[in-house]
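A brief tutorial aside. Many learners find it easier to grasp structure tokens once they have seen a single protein encoded end to end. The record that follows does exactly this for Gap junction protein. Read the sequence first, then the structure, and try to relate runs of similar tokens to stretches of the chain.
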Amino acid sequence: MNWGWFEGLLRAVNVYSTAFGRIWLTLVFVFRLLVYLVAAEKVWSDDHKDFDCNTRQPGCTNVCFDHFFPVSHIRLWALQLILVTCPSLLVLMHVAYREAKEERLREIQGDNYRRIYPNPGKKRGGLWWTYLLSLIFKASVDLVFLYIFFRLYRNYTLPRVVKCELPPCPNVVDCFISRPTEKNIFTLFMVVTTCVCVVLNLIEATYLIGKRCHEC
């Protein structure tokens, strides 16, 4: 999957972000996106191929793997990163809408027109609400995925051996996960960085609301 457009998106959003927002962008780009692309995808590339069960019963290994890994970590993280960065795209679209509106007024009224948005990227009016709601949405998405991971993989960890007794397995069979320790380390790393991102989003939202209340 090509993630190049994420880099351009995050660079553009950085222009309109607060200090907390820039820290959040750095965490997402360096500690989540790059770790995902460089290391995590390779760690999980052999999860199904090297999932071994001590039985030769046809279909047993596939059924057990599907039971213990209903959704791959990699696919969940990819979906999470897409949903987390989409609100930033809405902020850029709002700024682009303001700039386009200013350009239309300039074409109609000439260079001496009265500007509606002297600084289109300044967080005032509708853009302030768009930015605030984007922070709440990003924090909510991360919290939802943390809950999903916790429900699917208890305590965010993978056991070295799992016991499976689902049909068509003839009896209780032992199944072995490939590189469970390495996968647990990466999982905990992604969970911790996600929690830090949630805290930064909440701090930035509180900062925006406090600043607006102070100005009022």
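Self-check: The mean pLDDT is 82. If you spotted this yourself, you are ready for the next section.
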